Amino acid sequence: MFALRDKITLISGASRGLGRALAIEFARQGASVIINSRRTSAAGLAETEQRVRALNAPVLSVLADVSQRADVERLAGEALARFGRVDVLVNNASALGPTPMPYLVDTPIEEFEVVLRTNVTAPFMLTRALVGQMLARGAGSIINVSSDAGAVGYPTWGAYGVSKAALDHLTRVWAAELEGTGVRVNSVDPGDMDTAMKRASEPDGNASRWTKPETVTPVFVYLASDESARVSGQRFLAQQFLAAQRD
Amino acid sequence: MLELTLSENRAGQSASALVQFVLPPELEAREPAELRGLRRDAVRLMVLPHASGEPIHTRFDALGEFLRAGDLLVVNDSRTLPALLRARDENGEPIEVRLAHRRAEDLWDALLLNGRTHIGRVGMRLDFGNDLHARILARRPDLPFLWRMKFDVCCSSLLDLIYRLGEPVRYTYVPDALPLDLYQTVYANSPGSVEMPSAGRPLTWELLLKLKRNGVGLASISLHTGLSSTRDDAVDARHPNYDEEFHVPATTAQAVNETRARGGRVLAVGTTVVRALETAARADDTLAETRGWTQLRIHQNYRLRLVDGLLTGLHEPQASHLDLLSAFVEPTRLQAAYQACIARGYLWHEFGDMNLIV
Questions:
Q1: What is the largest CA-CA distance in chain B?
Q2: Could you give the strand order of the β-sheet that contains A235-237, starting from the edge strand earlier in sequence?
Q3: What CATH class does B4-80+179-357 carry?
Q4: Domain range annotation of chain B
Q5: Do A136 and B79 touch (CB under 8 A)?
Q6: Do A85 and B79 touch (CB under 8 A)?
Q7: B65 CA to chain A: closest CA distance, Å?
Q8: Residue B338: helix, strand or coil by DSSP?
Q9: Mind listing the pLDDT tens digit for each residue in A138-179?
Q10: Chain A residues with CB inside 8 Å of B251's CB?
């Protein structure tokens, strides 16, 4: 318990699903949380905020579209103004693209660019805006939310899969550049979760076989905590982490 | 007797009056190095030895050649706010509001402009759109071009609106509004500066981490910068003495004390760092954690207590920064060095080339 005592954490895309589950679990573990979503998800973000508040955790909600550079700078500035630092960044906000998901050949160019911008450029921009103050302190953790679709070329998961593969590589390069600085960068494939995004991607899927996002939070708590201080450049599978914990 | 009088006169004269040059407009940097096709750390660097010797002209990413293991670089980690806001008064007249100093969560001192004309009156109500309003409470008695204004929202909500409505403060030589992130140093932390603490802008993490591997320390202070110009040349020429809020953290105080005890050099990245450290310096020339406002004026005859060297940009003629520089180097040598920079086509201002005085 309280593995994240005094940690200042920022979770993008926290209006629902995994982002919300992480905000609540981080708060439960003693962290302060900055949560974010786009304006169109304001109601969901308010619900997350309320649930974090109920745990007596300090919380700041910022409506921002992290795919826009001005919004990224505003989100970083408001977080730092409120808490004086950010120790942990979870790049969780993600776009699936059009659903039902088309073949790459049938994907509109604009939609492809939106997915890449949200899933790759946004984590790049947000990390860039926050990593400097981590490097100045010589400590910090950046966690990128990846997907199985980034490792396997599933048909129709094109734009999303390409973006997650790029995000995994962003993780590797960034970790290599920051080796020895105390700032670490890792990615997590949470596996099949019962979320609104998953249901949109597989409307005919068997939701009863998908795990609840609440169950995959331990690997994120581990990566956000000092326990993983020397772990960087790794790609974690949430289910494997859980299984290893049970052993 | 005559000599004494002369030297008194000379001492009383500001360095900005002693350093005379005309800045050709083509040497004003209009945009960041990255938009000129350079890396941010590939701007030019003039290294000016303290006491004597010719300036060395090199590139900024060669900075490490002039630092030694055991030196400490102290940066200002204040983040830049988009402090230029547009409002309308009760009659619908457009007013440009340049935020200058945050006095409390909902209180700011600001410059009010109609074009380049200073305006404002007590009781004036400003409408910024997006349901943001402010009322002018008073005029600063010591800086009569600044007005104290109270916003009708506070705290995170006010900051959010400043970000949404504002743009970075800029002057005539920067033709276009640029994204706010271009006005940040790579180590920027909490926002509060109304103009970029620009001396650190060319620093990259690649360069900083290399310096660190070579034994150069890195520490930070926060000083929230005010406006560098009132846009009225006559007012600017009188060098109004702004007060700026700063914080020297305990870790930085300790790093400075240890560096000096070991015989290392404390190198300030920017004049803001010189002001913060020298204001916080104690009578025994040591440093402790300090939070406050500084109005310290540093000039030719000021005895620097803690700072051994300065990394800074190139300053305009008449800028009060030149007075501060003269605490590090004789105005006549500064004048010659600046002439050499002009001859070599160095670029001036916040996006320009750099000067290291060690």
A1: 66
A2: A59-63, A32-37, A8-11, A88-91, A140-145, A183-189, A235-237
A3: alpha beta
A4: 4-80+179-357, 84-165
A5: no
A6: no
A7: 22
A8: helix
A9: 999 999 999 999 999 999 999 999 999 999 999 999 999 999
A10: none
Task: Label the pairing between strands A88-91 and A8-11.
Answer: parallel
Nearest CA in chain A to B221: A136
ipTM of the complex, rounded to two decimals: 0.94
pLDDT, position B7: 31
Burial of B178-205, coded b for 16+ CB within 10 Å and e otherwise, reads: bebbbbbbbbbbbbbbbbbbbbbbbbbb
Asked whether residue B62 carries a pLDDT value surpassing 90, the answer given is: yes
Same fold, B4-80+179-357 and B84-165: no
Q: pLDDT by residue (tens digit) across B285-329?
A: 999 999 999 999 998 899 999 999 999 999 987 777 888 999 999
Q: How many residues does chain A have?
A: 247
How far, in whole angstroms, is CA A1 from its chain's centroid?
Answer: 22
The reported pLDDT for the residue numbered B51 is 80
A31 burial via Cβ count (<10 Å: 0-12, 13-18, 19+)? buried
DSSP code of residue B277: H
Which amino acid makes up residue B260? R
Residue pair A235/A189 in contact (Cβ under 8 Å)? The answer is yes
CB atoms B156 and A81 under 8 Å: yes
Compute the nearest-CA separation of B5 from chain A (Å): 49
Question: Cβ atoms within 10 A of the Cβ of A195, count?
Answer: 20
Domain boundaries A8-246, corresponding CATH code: 3.40.50.720
Q: B304: distance to nearest CA of chain A, Å? A: 26
B36, HSE (Cβ side, Cα atoms, 13 Å) = 16
Buried b / exposed e along A216-236 (16+ C-beta atoms within 10 A): bbebbbbbbbeebeeebbeeb
CATH homologous superfamily for the domain B84-165:
QueA-like (2.40.10.240)
CB A116 within 8 A of CB A162: yes
| Cα B306 to Cα B308: distance, rounded to the nearest angstrom | 7
Closest CA to A187 of A229, A214, A150: A150
DSSP string for A118-146: IIIIHHHHHHHHHHHHHHHHT-EEEEEE-
Largest CA distance in chain A: 49
Interface check B205 vs A, CB under 8 A: yes
Q: Which of A74, A58, A62 is nearest to A13 (CA)?
A: A62
Tell me if B353 sits within 8 A of B44, measured CB to CB: yes
Pairwise CB contact (< 8 Å): A77 & B186 = no
For the whole model, what pTM was predicted?
A: 0.95
